[in-house]
Design a protein that fits this description.
By secondary structure, this protein is mainly alpha-helical. The chain contains 9 helices and 2 strands. The chain has a two-stranded antiparallel ribbon. Helix 5 runs antiparallel to helix 9, helix 6 packs across helix 7 and helix 8 packs antiparallel against helix 9. The relative contact order is 0.10. Keywords: DNA-binding, Repressor, Transcription, Transcription regulation. This is TetR/AcrR family transcriptional regulator. It holds the Pfam family TetR_C_6. InterPro entries: BetI_C, Homeodomain-like_sf, HTH-type_TetR-like_transc_reg, HTH_TetR, Tet_transcr_reg_TetR-rel_C_sf.
């Protein structure tokens, strides 16, 4: 391998991570449209050349943030569910975990809401965003079906539609919570209504809860 190639390859993930972090902070502070590539580069401490070696546009930068946020959210929820004991796999406990809202979620909500409005006005941006949302919903639906089986339940409705409903409940709830945080703390609507929604949209499995491979 030519001298220096390993160093460049090793730096690339760090550069990309720094640009993503700077982009999220700058988008949240100034807005997606108002933010310039120069502002992102300045905050990250990199040049425009470093930026364009990772991202072709601000839209591509946002979509990378979208995928990163989605993966992190799904991973956190999966880890929390995996930590549950067998007796804790209940609809109420699942809803409680799904209702958790991290403090940094507010910045992401500001950024993604503005980009969604942009996508509504721009058919091409809408098409691309929809593909990324589709992949995230598939992960949510897959994880939901798995954890419900552990609780001895199965959905009686289309999993993709139900994933859309959960996302709508969360995003709509957050919109109200960030406007009236004292009247409606983040996660309140999910905690109050998601258990009943899950109960109404699932049925008992005839064989009961799915056992883990190492269970006797």
């Amino acid at each position: 391998m030519p001298k220096g190639v390993t160093g460049v390859t090793g730096r690339r993930p760090r550069t990309r991570a720094a640009l993503l972090k700077a982009a999220l902070e700058t988008f949240a502070e100034h807005g997606f449209h108002a933010t310039t590539i120069e502002q992102v580069c300045e905050r990250a401490g990199y040049t425009r050349g470093a930026y364009y070696s990772n991202f072709a546009s601000k839209e591509e930068l946002f979509l990378a943030l979208f995928d990163e946020h989605g993966e992190r959210t799904v991973r956190r929820l999966a880890e929390a569910i995996d930590a549950l004991g067998p007796e804790e796999h209940t609809v109420a406990r699942i809803a409680e975990l799904a209702a958790r809202v991290e403090p940094e979620e507010r910045d992401w909500y500001l950024v993604t809401t503005e980009f969604t409005l942009h996508a509504i006005r721009d058919p091409q941006a809408a098409w691309v965003l929809a593909r990324h949302e589709e992949r995230l919903r598939a992960e949510i639906a897959r994880g939901l079906a798995l954890v419900l089986r552990r609780a001895g339940r199965a959905l009686t409705v289309d999993t993709d539609r139900f994933a859309r409903l959960i996302i709508a409940l969360r995003e709509g709830g957050l919109a109200q919570s960030y406007v009236e945080p004292e009247a409606l703390p983040p996660g309140t609507l999910e905690r109050e209504f998601l258990p009943a929604l899950l109960e109404a949209s699932t049925r008992d499995l005839p064989d009961g809860p799915e056992r883990e491979p190492d269970e006797r």
